[in-house]
Amino acid sequence: MSRTAKRSKKRLRPTKYVSRCRPRRSCRAKLLKPPCSRITRPRVKQGRPSRTILPGATHCFTEHTYVGAETSSSTSALPAQDTSSLSLYTYGIVNRGKNPALVQIQISPNAVDYAVDSQEVIAGGQTKALVPQRFLRYTRLAIQSVEPDQPTRLDVYFQAQRMP
Fold first, then answer.
1. pLDDT digits (tens, 9 = 90+) for 74-119
2. If we measure between CA atoms, which residue out of 133, 156, 164 comes closest to residue 63?
3. β-bridge partners, 91
4. Model-level pTM?
5. How far apart are the C-alpha atoms of 70 and 87, rounded to whole Å?
6. What are phi and psi for residue 111, nearest 5 degrees?
7. Strand 76-77 and strand 115-122: pairing?
8. Quick one: which of 143, 122, 128, 123 has its CA closest to 90?
């Protein structure tokens, strides 16, 4: 009998169906694990954000901090955030100066053309939380002094959460 005949005889035998999956427990654990399992918390030095990744969380939390952002008589924008994959996000603004500041949430579909979503005046020493009312892929904060030649200093916190 030739080799091919022997192989075909072997194929005719009933075969056992073996699960190629690992034991049930590990497959189940994979299904229950959330898609994102780490926290990112940026470290900031002089208004520049950087991220530190902390392993072991059950959801994704992201924070960008801009400490000591100075306002002027012209509008200046903070870096844009890609909010397309985030479930919940908020800007926390603390006015550390004595003068009021005009703060705008701006949204954009392409990170080039921005529209004002909402705006708020934050008095000196006041803290406010701002949430965009509409959704587009990119979101940023624009700051400006209310009174010309009366700058103020703002601490801005962008905090976001992605739910599994």
1. 999 999 999 999 989 999 999 999 999 999 999 999 999 999 999 9
2. 156
3. 130, 158
4. 0.64
5. 30
6. 65, 20
7. unpaired
8. 128
* CA 150/CA 100 separation, integer angstroms: 9
Q: Residue 22 burial (CB < 10 Å; 0-12/13-18/19+)? A: exposed
Here the tokens at position 33 are: 């694990």
Spatial separation of the C-alpha atoms in residues 106 and 139, rounded to whole Å: 6
Query: In the structure encoding, which two tokens stand for residue 106, read together?
Result: 């701006």
Element (DSSP H or E) covering residue 81: strand 81-82
| Structure tokens, 85 | 């994959």
- Is residue 62 a contact partner of residue 160, using CB atoms and an 8 Å limit? yes
d(C-alpha 37, C-alpha 163), whole Å:
10
* Total residues found in the chain within this entry: 164
Written as one letter, the residue type at 53 is I
Largest CA distance in the chain: 99
Given the structure tokens 């703002």, which residue do they identify?
154
